[in-house]
Batch of 4 targets.
Target 1
Amino acid sequence: MALLTCRDLSLGYDGHEIVHGLNFNVESGDYLCVVGENGSGKSTLMKTILGLLSPLSGEIELGDGLKRNEIGYLPQQTEVQKDFPASVWEIVLSGCQNRMGARPFYRKEEKDLALSNIEKMGIEPFIKRCYRELSGGQQQRVLLARALCATQKMLVLDEPVSGLDPVVTAEMYDLIARLNREDGITVVMISHDIAASLRYADHILHIAEHLFFGTTEEYLASDTASAFLKGGDGK
Amino acid sequence: MTEIFDKLSLYLQFSFVQYALIVGVLIALCSSLLGVTLVLKRFSFIGDGLSHVAFGAMAIAAVVGLTNDMPLILAVTTLSAILLLRTGQNTKIKGDAAVAMISVGALAIGYLLMNLFSKSSNISGDVCSTLFGSVSILTLTLTEVWLSTVLSGIVIVIFVLFYNKIFSVTFDENFAKATGVRTGLYNLLIAVVIAVIIVLAMNLVGSLLISALVIFPALSAMRVFKSFRSVTICSGVFSVVGAFLGILIAIVAGTPVGSTIVATDIVGFVIFLVIGAFAKRKA
């Protein structure tokens, strides 16, 4: 059974429909990139998968024992976070909240988990540093470590490389690819970077007037892809 | 100098001065704890808005002739707090505009009611003392001291128990919600606690100056400290010291209590600003 199945999904908010008739599924271990133009509904899809928005119609089914609150989420940076006094340790540890229930304080196992993810992301030199003083790439690693604390199965990433320079972007992609390959973590990524999506992902979901879902090879052979790649938005 | 200390030690023997110090310090501590969250969530002005609502409620209570106006004020303020924090996420009227609207509206209605119906001969005096804090902090009864102590105690316990949840809701509400934290519930909790603090703090500094108790400690601590925990602890200490010194100065110098505390906080803020600037240059 698939990890995530979307059937006849209609998305939008305030009763305003953006996407309809969305069908796709994500198997365990997949690397799916969601591409499409600005305003096509990529972020809305992501928020719906995470349960932040409810679908207008259709259904989202989670399988393989994946629970809604066990999806690791890497959001785009918010205005609030740019001036937020928090140490790397505090932020990564907050990724363990979904294990806490009503329990008020962290136990040793949560602290160990946070520490191991900090090491995995290579940010242990900054563990006591303030988040807002780190570079963009370091900040993304912190948020990725936090997302890893929340999941063992599935990461949902919202444009993880936006605002990063080319070198750091490449490092970030490699890091995500390694998590997918070595730790078997399923990746669902929203991306503007069509070239990188084609290079790393094994499945593509293209949200536009003509929806496309399939493997990367199928996508490259499709009409949707050729139109999109020729058009202005393809980089 | 010794003269001042003599005067102080004399005053400190009076129970009303002791009451004022206890209540003042507790309220300052509570407001500073939540202040960090409010400042970071861009809700600095909610304190201001709510205190004006509390002023309006107080005016209504006076007009209706309630002798014990606390429950009414608390209820109205809590309700407004919930409404305001809700509109923060809602669409039609944005958070800041909603705060401004409710706050000014409540202020105007409150003053209007007081003028139309008040039997007091000194309306402007009444209004002034409600807005800027009167000597009422120095005329607390034992019951009021207990009430303030218990409510402050509850606020502090709630804050400590939910500290980690409050952090995660403040830092990244979407992530928190996606990982199953009941963000709506905690926003509600924050709203209710804020309302309680505002109503308590009206005694201390009056409804116009409450924002100062919420904002100054948090902003000062944020100049110097870098983690959420150290900022929270520092703003608590800052606020307690500010309130303590402020009350003592006010008693010795005979100045209004509320504005003296705020003035002390401003001085503290400037000191932290300078320390922060130096620390940055050194780094």
Target 2
Amino acid sequence: MAELTRPRPARGTHSASRAGSPADGGTRLPTVGPGVPGHVLSHASGGRDQWSDPMETPPADPEQGLLDCLGEVLDPELPISLVDLGLIYAARLDDDGTARIDLTFTATACPCMAFIREDITDRLEQEPWVESVAIREVWDPPWTRDRITERGRRQLGELGVGV
Amino acid sequence: MTGAEALSGGPPAGDPDLTSPGLEGSPDALRAAMGRLLLTLADTKRILGLRYSDWLLGAPAIEAGIAASSMAQDEWGHARLLYATLGDFGEDPRVLEHERDAANWTSLEVLDGPFEDWAQFVGRSLVVDAALAIALEGLKAGLYAPIDGRLAKMLAEEEFHRSLLEAWCTRLASGSTEARGRLGAAITGAFPAALRWVGPGDGPHARLREAGLTSGAPTLRAALVGRVRPFVRSLGLDLPGPASLDDDWDGTRARGAGQPDDDVVERARGDRNRALFVE
């Protein structure tokens, strides 16, 4: 199956490429309710105006570190993270700093595939311990709404989206 | 050795058809047969998506047009996944998708022209979608991993198409005499070609079956009849009897004679946007 690998750009060249960010004078948005993070109001691709700063030290558990980062990346259409939407099937870090992500989509013709790949890559490449990102597109098992996490369901529910 | 292993080029020990020298039954022939099947599936889905898209704003109800839009997207998503596998067979997916003449497209012939009305949309699509699903399910029984990993998602999406098409068939069949007549004509007009297409039973398909990569032609044909006939009969309609179409079978393209119209192929290839392609 095709695996897309993109070389790492220079640090600091990829932030908020399609919207304003705190660094550009944007403002972090307030929490809108219990369990609903402020970034659900973000209009920046992937919620990047609300992404955390890079970790100061590499995570003790690289897989969890990758998932924590991806937990900040919003789906372009639903205001929850790719992790809570259940699109991330695997995340691991090679010894050479390559972050390998198994990614699925809600539909075979998802119109946001390119955005999602770009948002994942940009978020992970913020981290000094990630040298490059390799995304593998997977379809087995197929995504269904059952893969949305409890937190994701709660966030969607509070925004009036039933799943 | 599995069919998938045979496709990888390893020695197909234990299968006399595959170890025999020469083109017949060789791994190369098996790969060619699988490539033909996948291209036929991809082309049919690509053209079907365009036929769906013709009705986004012409359906009897706006909700039906929205459904047609989603179905069109699904078919193109499936085509994308299928074309991508053809790189494993020595083909350039970009050339296949964007540079072939209409005469070399392998889509099912009942899609060569546009759906003339909504009855043709639902009647022909009921048959073609069923044939596509049966062909995919036939592959599911096989062992070609790149396809196996994509089938479940495609089949899940096809189930939504089936629900919509059956609902509209039911609605038209219970409507006016004219609506019922047009629906019946659309179904019976499409079925013989779909039946032959789903289970061609020629040499390449036989090689796939022998290698365990797909179900046999009789099984696939029976599955299509078993899926469509009970529903059609529940509408008070029926399928046509067996028809001999062998005279115009094109084994290279795994379809009947003719070709999709130039307009739809130009749209499928993206001719007008060729200068705008980006990597």
Target 3
Amino acid sequence: MDKLYSLTAAQMKDLLDRKEVTSVEITKSVIDRIEKTDGEIQAYTSYNFEQALQQAAAADEKRAKGETVGELAGIPVAVKDNMCTKNLRTTAGSKMLGNFVPPYNATVVEKLLADGAVIIGKTTMDEFAMGSSGENSAFQVARNPWDTTRVPGGSSSGSAATVAASQVPLALGSDTGGSIRQPACLTGIVGMKPTYGAVSRYGLIAYGSSLDQIGPMARTVDDTAMLFKAICGKDKMDATSKDYTYTPYGDSVKGMKLGLPKEYFGEGISAEVKERIYQAVEVLKAQGAEIVEVSLPSTDYALSAYYIIACAEASSNLGRYDGVKYGFTGSDRSSLENLYISSRSEGFGEEVQRRILLGTYVLSSGFYDAYYKKAKVLQKVIAKEFDDALKLCDAIITPLNPTTAFKIGEKSNDPVAMWAGDICTVTLNIAGLPGINVPCGFDSNNMPVGFQVLGRKFSESTLLTIAKCYENTVGGFAVKEF
Amino acid sequence: MNSNYEIVVGLEVHAELSTETKIFCGCKNEFGAEVNTNVCPVCMGLPGTLPVLNEQVVEYAIKMGHAMNCTINGTTKHDRKNYFYPDLPKSYQISQFDIPLCENGYLDVLVGDEVKRIGVTRIHIEEDAGKLIHDDSLGGSLADYNRCGVPLIEIVSEPDIRSADEAKAYLDTIHTTLLYLGISDAKMQEGSVRCDVNVSVRPAGSTEFGTRVEMKNVNSFSAAHRAINYEAARQIKVLEEGGEIVQETRRWDDVKGVNVLLRSKEDAQDYRYFPDPDLLTFVVSDEKIAEIKASIPELPVAKTMRYMSEYKLSRADSELLALNKNTAAFFEAVIATGKCEPKSVSNWILGDIYKVLNERKCEITDLALTPANLAEMISLIEKKTISNAAGKTVLEVILDENKDPNEIVKEKGLAQVSDTGALNAIVEKVLANNEKAVTDFKNGKTNVVGFLVGQCMKESKGKGNPAMLKDMVVAAIEKM
């Protein structure tokens, strides 16, 4: 069969169940596709081809014997390089962990393996998940398949790029302030940040622990749901994970109330993006959704609160990379202090150092109350506003990114502009709510536009229902021939 | 010590808790395992790992909180204390900052015959760090992470301690309390109890505190005693010479008996405490807190006081009995039989039995001796069925064998002879064989009667009633 790699996960499952193809055939097709295209896309920091073929053969054997297999059995999945994989290099996109091989699997990886999935490789990312373009990787810049001179977004840049380029049907990303949804938006795929606590963080290399969440990325809503179902649920290794029962989703928005917050449609959002989103809202309205206006007045403060909380936590989380135990060791070993300084100065990239410094500053005595404490108060205010707004509607629709994908290098010298782009995404992480990117057309440069659907805690099935209804109504999402 | 000055001491005691597993992972919590064997990705702080709270730690710490009369905060909150050191693999220690598990308590301690109340500011739970092994032959240091994640409680006292003796009494009381509660091995030599000492001095009668100096590396309670006296003398000397005390941290060198500057206040680290986002607050219900409180046994100082008032024992004997949980329980079990006097029980335990425990280096519970058998043995003496000497013979048997003392007395024929006829024969024989002593007695050296009674006891093979024999010896000589 031709182009097996380009199938969706649901199509692969169907063929596998009907024994029309084997997982080894699919996996070989995917490997071949990656080998032919990844020189340009640069979606992977490590390939896992040998292991992947063994996993595929194992899944085939189980199916052949008629044993019960998981939904993802035999289906290739890419994993962001900040999720620990036993005996497979896990770099978090950093020189600091360039040679780090974990002795254990992240819970999500364990779950994928238990389901029979094929782990195809580890995807390129902004260093320690800090970035919105993928340009902060210590190794390479993943490309946007729609225009390889443009960024795919970040920090889950490789996961978005590999799915958008039809190298694999599924990828795991992580989202601390939009790192799943924003690259999904910029590459025209679906990406969902689940409710904080819906998916175990055990084995996810921490950036901002109270905000980090792992989630699925795919080219269709069904595939997104399929991957989410495999990874969600309480984990005894993660005290912040919650009991979570996956509930099936529908495809009708009839009678649903969808909120539009005026604060998300202000000056900062490009006219073209706004226009596409209003069109998408019209589509949902035509399907029977009722549109209501809601207000989230503290939205403007969310960005500050986000960067203070995330950086504060990062400054503590990244302290362990000191050149002593594993990973990169600096060149000056003349004293303990010099070892620390050289390891961290040489091992971390500029953006990571910027955030560690900022986080250290906001936690230091004398500044804690003015910054960190205030940000935590704001976090409560923002969460409360979402709660109130979500009492008036079933879900809220906003733009996902102010613009479409920009050119590589365009913003890399302006960190503030780069941070400002996160305005639509960070609010969810601050409030711990789930959100999903739904592709909704293209701008004049033929770059994808997406809208965000967000909802109450643990309302993933509502979000998937709305996304599915839109997907069906518009006849599916465009896939880049690459 | 210069009596123009008063010493003010506050203590921070760290005690390792003897839970089965570590505080945030499933690794075994044991001392002395081979280097880096009791470790896992979590306590090694590997990227991506997360802590999960061991609830037994909370329970143990609450026990100590109750024992120190603290208010218990049922909602635990954990904070990160950030600093860089190679023995701390995460670069932060999970501790408690603004809301400790227990606070506002006190501990009554005995200093001489006085009860002194020492305020307890707080008790919080935290994880221990690893150990660095410095070895010049390797040209550097090695890290052993076995101790990472071993649960600790830190007990912070108010600056209520006024002398090295009070500090020692406070530390000793904490030590016995930990053992009584069964929450710590409390072995100083294994480092399972450690303390930091804060010392200041002020003119006698002053109500304001002087500038305090913190001392680290105080590795035993007796070292604490020496360190406090040294530091107080040092500060008084500085003040007497017109100098000023500077707030600083000093390192105690117990071998040399001196301390040296470790860091000044300006170099104090900013630990950037903030709530640990990986741990949700853990709530202990009021019922559970009450349940733990109900499980707290009577503690050593209270026992000591009770033994003194209820049993009229001396302070020293009471404290010795109360010091060891097993000994105290045994003592009380013997008393509970109602067969014998507390004073005799105390004498037997602290005398012959203690000697055996010391020789065998064991606990009273390791012996076959039962409270019932000891009570019976003592009551036989009190009823004059056997002599004290015969009691020792019985004890030798019942130490290692659960056997009715009455049977032993029967088998060994240890019953005291109180039959006048039989005793008369013995007295006559002894007096006939000891003419010199009889003459001495007649010449006024009446203390030889002890020797004569001893000879009679020997002749009776320890079975004679010594009181009767004494009367009979005196009467016989006087009749001569």
Target 4
Amino acid sequence: MGELIKTSQEYPRLLRSIKDAPKVLYYAGEYNPAIFFNTLAVVGSRAVTAYGEWVVTNIVKELARAGLTIVSGFMYGVDALAHKAALDAAGKTIAVMAGGVSHIFPSYQEDLYNRIVATGLVVSEFNETCMGGGWSFVRRNRIVAGLSKAVFVVEAGESSGSLITAGIAKACGRKLFTVPSNLNSLNSFGTTKLLKAGATLVSEPGDILNAYPFSNITNNSRVSTVSSVNKRLLNADWLGTFPGRVYKKLCLEPQTADDLARYFEKTITEVLTTATELVMGGDIHEKEGKYYVN
Amino acid sequence: MLTKVKSAYFFGTDAFEVDVEVNILERCMPGFEIVGLAGREVAESRERVKNAILNAYGRFPYDKKIVVNLAPADIPKEGSYYDLSIAAGILSLTFAIQFPCDSAFFGEVSMDGQVRKTRGAYLFGAFAKAKAIKNLFVPSDCYQELSSIKDVTIYPISNLSQLANFADLKAPPTTDLETVRRSLPSRICDVDFCDILGQDTAKRALVISAAGGHSILLSGSPGSGKSREYEVGEVAKIYSASGFVDDLIVQNLCRPFRSPHHTISYSGMVGGGSVPKPGEISLAHKGVLFLDEMSEFQPSILECLRQPMEDGFITISRSKGSVRMPCEFTLVGCTNPCPCGFFGDPKNVCKCSPPDVARYKKRLSGPILDRIDIFLRIHNPAYEVQSTYSGFMGGGKAEKVSDQLRARVEKARAAQELRLEAEHIGINARMTNDLVKKYCVLDHTCSDLLERAVYKLALTPRTVFKIIKVARTIADLDEALTILPSHLAEAIQYKCI
């Protein structure tokens, strides 16, 4: 637990450069100046979809592994997933709280908070257990953007906090990255808007890593592309079998057992049996009644 | 002049003998008294009986003192079914009607002398049989209900005037239960499975649940609610006809289907009252207890289902005594996935925060979920399904499939009964872990698959047993003697968590 004064040496340089940087930045966790280098804000919708989750767990995890510090707002949805992805990759992460540094909100994410404090940093412009409020969530966004060299937006609704963060980042001259979503998804409004306004489209971790100087990144492994995850799609023999056909269909779009049975004109029994086979093989998983490729 | 006839006193599903003693005194102040801790309904029977006798026989001994004693006198009597015994006593003294000495009477009379249909006739019949009472006088409308009671002469009475020549009474024609049961499909199945669009997984799971008596929990968005209820109602019909007619619900000729509202009280659910009456769980004995919006039930009421679900009976203790009532029901629950109902829905955005969803899910406690075998998440069928699809189970044609399914369910039930005969349980769902080990031997491939599933899906031992039980039922539906890997693989997908 400690505080960084705006005028001091320890205060993050990037944050100091923004217009209304907080005079004092409180923090919880072990202070290490290196954590403020190569920072990337990952922000997005609270109502994260399976697709958003996939993006965070596949792309952000790779970024954290490559050495980027993932900065986010500790909210549930994309924020929490981004912190988790960074921690799971044994990477660095900074959580910017809307209230005081000791005020865990949402409170049920206490485990995540403790994990971040143990290996990363929790920061806020407010002291101790200050409660914050609706307004402080918006104010928090300027710190998220200010701490980061670039902002990566994963899924954002029409009028979301993520767009506010992106706007601040743009005003401060930070780079903007985003991934496209299906146009018929509510979560695509924000990201599509950003793409039209000139944000950089991300399709693999390298797209973001290229914007960072790699001189001080210790683990300098080049990141594999996301599409190479689907090695199974290269096995033509297997794709001809029923499980293979189901897998290929699921690669297009998540499906329920009903959808699959109707599409392949098979009985539910056959579909469920095949699903078990694929789940056992680690190819797919089930969530809320739908099957997704891993 | 004194006469005695027999009646009974019910406590829960138990019955005890009551002597109805009627005395008519000549030299006394005229009057009509009922003594022996008679409740309000019993005391009111004075007026019913008086008017009924007047209307059926034209006169009543107004000028005499009539005293009726219900013995034993220290037990409170409730219910309107003592009317017939009181009337019979008075008639026997006034009109010198000789009833056989071993006679018991049951029934409520109306003012015009008619004998009305009265609740509890079957209980009374069973009591008479147990006590070896030879002659039973009951309302003629209850005769069908008693048709399975043997060794007791039953006199169906429709009017008090018939008591004078009871020996000439002819039994009304009754229908053979087996014939009625066979005629059921056309009568009660006005909804067919192929009328329900899509939802094939749900249909399949419900058939499995019906076949093996497995408890099932369906969760889905509000839009799918209507079809859900529809479906479950349909399955109730499958259930009803799949089973053999249960004595206790003779009138219905089908398995019970109870769907209490979520505002139900504790006593309404498990049974209660100072003289315990069966609750919904006992009324659903051998049938289905359907809890729509299961998460909305008070947690304490859901928790009290735990023990009955395990034991198959409930003991209700009250100051007046305790009674044990059977309650082997299959639980069919429906719930929304979250407070707004749209969590995981592809078309609508869920407005709930993760803690809201988690809290909502927590409303169904672990011990209750532990007792549910099949979990299913259902989605709204897509629009194109609703408009063009008529169900592949019916081969795409509007062909009635429910009859076919019922036949399969019946076969599966018969197979289970045969296998589990020695254990005195009829359905796979009631197998204990020991019985699962005994009757569901898995071959090498199956146990290998299960082992991998345990590792991959982090299954608990309890879940493993549930999967095996469901797999056994799937095998029974397939008419397979042993569980095959495909049966197990299907069972694993019913999210047995």
